[in-house]
Design goal:
Largest sheet: 6 strands, antiparallel
Distance between the termini: 50 Å
Oligomer: single chain
Shape: elongated
Radius of gyration: 23 Å
Number of helices: 6
Structural class: alpha+beta
Number of strands: 17
Helix content: 10-25%
Amino acid sequence: MRFFLTLIATLFAGALAAEPVSLDSVTLDDGRVLTIQRFPFDAELQLDGQSILEDAGVEMFDAGEAGILVQTWHGGNSCPYSFRLMDKTNGEFRQINLNSDRPEVFAECEGLISVIPELATILTERYSTRNMAKGYIWYGYALEEFAVPIMGGNAPEPEPGDMVTRWNGEDPYDFLRDPVEQKRLLRVISEVQFDDLSWLMSFRSPAYVEGDYLLMDGCVKYLCDAQNAIVAVRVSDGQPFVRIYDDGAVTLGGPADEELPPAIQAHAARYP
């Protein structure tokens, strides 16, 4: 518990907002030197001048007792990043996922937020409407994963008007991560359905206001005709409506005794 409270205090002191500082060279405990050599189209991690890792990009960060965090990326737009931890005493990559064909690699497809050397902790992010970040902490013998959840216990109650229209032009992902809007949506769908909604809106356009409704829709990339969803929030009273279409299965959230908003009706006509 003490560690968790210390971690949260550190996060809110600025770790989430701080850019991690990369290193161009590191001297290991045995005197050997790690360096990064950058070329026009790729980069190498070198140990005493010998290449030990290469990719489109390589960066190093001090992770305290966890070792040296090595970030690589391959230059594509699908899961570009992966991470390794190097032991400062011997220059070897730590074995983290013992049952994997690449046991030293972790946090693939995640983006680096911060490195907290004092806590031997690494914070990353991946598409999630439930968590602010993912964390990895080194306990001296293993790297353990944990979540930094979005806390909404003290969030105010959802209201109409400006509290709805503030999302005009914004990314629906931010709407779904907002504790107030989570409360609003959970009035008409379950938590499991909310998680389905979040995934089915992972590929999306900015929210927009049309008439008396804030509208947002999205889909699963490359599967938009089979897996998609739409959310409509009435500006005048803050009432939400949700329609989820998942391979022919439909989930509908909203008052049972009201006519559906025009955008929801249009979605139903297109995806019956």
